[in-house]
Design goal:
Elements (H helix, E strand, L loop, with lengths): L3 E5 L3 H12 L3 E5 L11 E4 L2 E4 L8 H9 L11 E3 L4 E4 L4 E4 L3 H11 L4 H20 L15 H4 L9 H8 L3 H8 L18 H8 L3 E3 L4 H13 L3 E3 L4 E7 L2 E7 L2 E4 L2 E4 L3 H6 L10 H6 L5 E9 L9 E4 L4 H9 L10 E4 L14 E9 L7 H19 L7 E7 L1 H8 L31 E3 L10 H17 L1
Parallel strand pairs: 1-2, 1-13, 2-9, 6-15, 13-19
Antiparallel strand pairs: 3-4, 5-8, 6-7, 10-11, 11-12, 14-17, 14-18, 15-16, 16-17
Helix pairs in contact: 1-9, 1-15, 3-4, 4-8
């Protein structure tokens, strides 16, 4: 029977769920508080420069393809997808590692750093591919309702992989600290330290080295535009500048939402907004999780971001660049163990205009810099300026060029903005980390335990942080709604 479904937020998971629910015959409406669709995956266009404000890595192309295939479409119906070659560079204090676009090139680079390392690398990635096949086709497709979802003939033989860590597995096979950092880097997308992330998540290494890094021409926002187009083509109504202020519950059942002071009756309410924030829209007796619960969770980092227009083409860079020229473990402790502003942070620099001329004026460069930081930190203009000066000087030194005098403009985004723009808990950027005690059925639930016809989707519930998991989360909650 067709239901009237109101969805809060318009990020990847919300758009995904909206498409599946509309396809099933429901009347679906999306309410987005900001003036553009996309949630955290928004876009900044200024003076001919185009920036992805949020996600900038396109991994797991198969997940995107499967999503559009479910509606009789392909990604190529909406955007051009190019494989990056090389995928990215990692700048260390005394060397630069270049990750190529296939395993042979990557093995050559590993051999350059440490003779004989390509053999254990191939074994490690083969194992990671097995994990990927199980994860993507079995584990992440479960709604997180029961621990028995993790029990299958494939996972039962790998149960130890949920209790070992990525860090222990990598360090067992590799001794060179640069190679260790290179292999531990991908799990940062899952939001936790490598020594707290189950080794089963090495499937991220296969996503990296095996499937490669891609770029949708025009930027990541092209995916949002594609999903919006698909959603509207199958009947989804999307309303921007529509801030949801309240979820009304009657007889323990979600009855309506209040949007811009207007009451919208709803058979089902689904939130793709921040999970913690969504529960504050309910009266206290209807909330599943206390403030103490959220405060004890391990959250993925927040970020200090800079969006910069340069008046010239930059040298010695690639599309994606990681600056690991300081101590990885000390920075990680400043995020997770003793939250504070790091003294010498690692950072990431993205220049999509290296491979995509549509994202910048001629002879210029579009630059996006990101410093991962602990959520909930003090955020002031003075701190932002201090850290920009810190990383830009290191960037100049590592890439052997002067860039500060070539900056046309600079915009920043940090903890305060994550809170004001996305109602993000403590200003986190990536959701809830995928640690052992926050995996699968141990994450906040897709379906409210206290309120009938109230559901959740996105990076704080299953499967977890990242764009591909967000697409899957939308599908999972839509199936759960259908089932119930």
């Amino acid at each position: 029977m067709s239901k009237t479904i109101s969805i809060i937020g318009s990020g990847f998971s919300a758009l995904s769920a909206a498409c599946y629910l509309a396809k099933a015959g429901h009347t679906v409406s999306i309410y987005e508080k900001n003036d553009t669709v996309g949630g955290r995956a928004r876009q900044l266009i200024k003076d001919g420069f185009t920036f992805d404000i949020g996600p900038s890595w396109y991994w797991m192309p198969d997940v995107f393809e499967k999503f559009f295939n479910d509606f009789g479409k392909t990604t190529s119906d909406y955007y051009q997808l190019d494989k990056l070659s090389p995928a990215y560079k990692i700048f260390f204090l005394d060397d630069v590692i270049t990750i190529g676009d296939h395993m042979d090139k990557i093995c050559e680079e590993f051999e350059r750093i440490e003779a004989g390392s390509s053999k254990p690398l191939r074994k490690f990635i083969t194992r990671a591919q097995e994990h990927y096949d199980i994860a993507i086709n079995k584990v992440v497709l479960k709604p997180g309702v029961s621990p028995f979802e993790l029990v299958s003939k494939e996972t039962i033989t790998r149960v130890d992989q949920f209790f070992k860590t990525i860090s222990s597995e990598v360090r067992k096979n590799f001794k060179n600290p640069k190679l260790i950092s290179t292999l531990e880097f991908p799990v940062l997308f899952l939001g936790a330290k490598p020594n707290q992330t189950p080794s089963f998540y090495s499937f991220m290494n296969f996503a990296d080295f095996g499937l490669g890094t891609w770029h949708p021409k025009g930027g990541m926002y092209e995916i949002i535009k594609a999903m919006q187009s698909l959603a509207e083509s199958i009947g989804v109504s999307i309303y921007t500048n529509s801030n949801v202020k309240k979820i009304t519950v009657k007889n323990n059942t979600a009855e309506s939402i209040t949007v811009n002071e207007k009451i919208i009756p709803s058979d089902i309410v689904l939130s793709g907004a921040d999970y913690h924030h969504t529960e504050t829209l309910l009266e206290k007796q209807h909330r599943q999780y206390s403030e103490a619960y959220w405060n004890k969770r391990t959250f993925a980092p927040s970020s200090l971001l800079f969006y910069i227009g340069f008046d010239k083409k930059l040298q010695n860079i690639e599309h994606h660049n990681l600056f690991f020229d300081t101590d990885f473990e000390i920075h990680a402790k400043d995020i997770y163990d003793n939250p504070k502003w790091p003294e010498e942070p690692l950072f990431y620099a993205n220049f999509p205009s290296v491979t995509d001329k549509t994202m910048t004026p001629q002879h210029c460069e579009t630059g996006f810099f990101l410093i991962p930081i602990a959520p909930g930190l003090e955020d002031t203009p003075q701190l932002r300026d201090h850290y920009f000066n810190l990383i830009i000087k290191r960037f100049e030194k590592r890439t052997d060029q002067n860039v500060q005098k070539h900056i046309l403009f600079k915009s920043s985004f940090c903890v305060n903005d994550f809170i004001s723009e996305y109602n993000s808990y403590k200003g986190n950027a990536y959701g809830l980390a995928n640690t052992l005690t926050q995996t699968a059925f141990l994450r906040p639930k897709l379906k409210s335990k206290k309120v009938k016809d109230l559901y959740f989707t996105g990076q704080l519930t299953v499967p977890g942080p990242g764009v591909p998991p967000a697409l899957i989360s939308g599908k999972l909650v839509s199936e759960l709604i259908q089932k119930n």
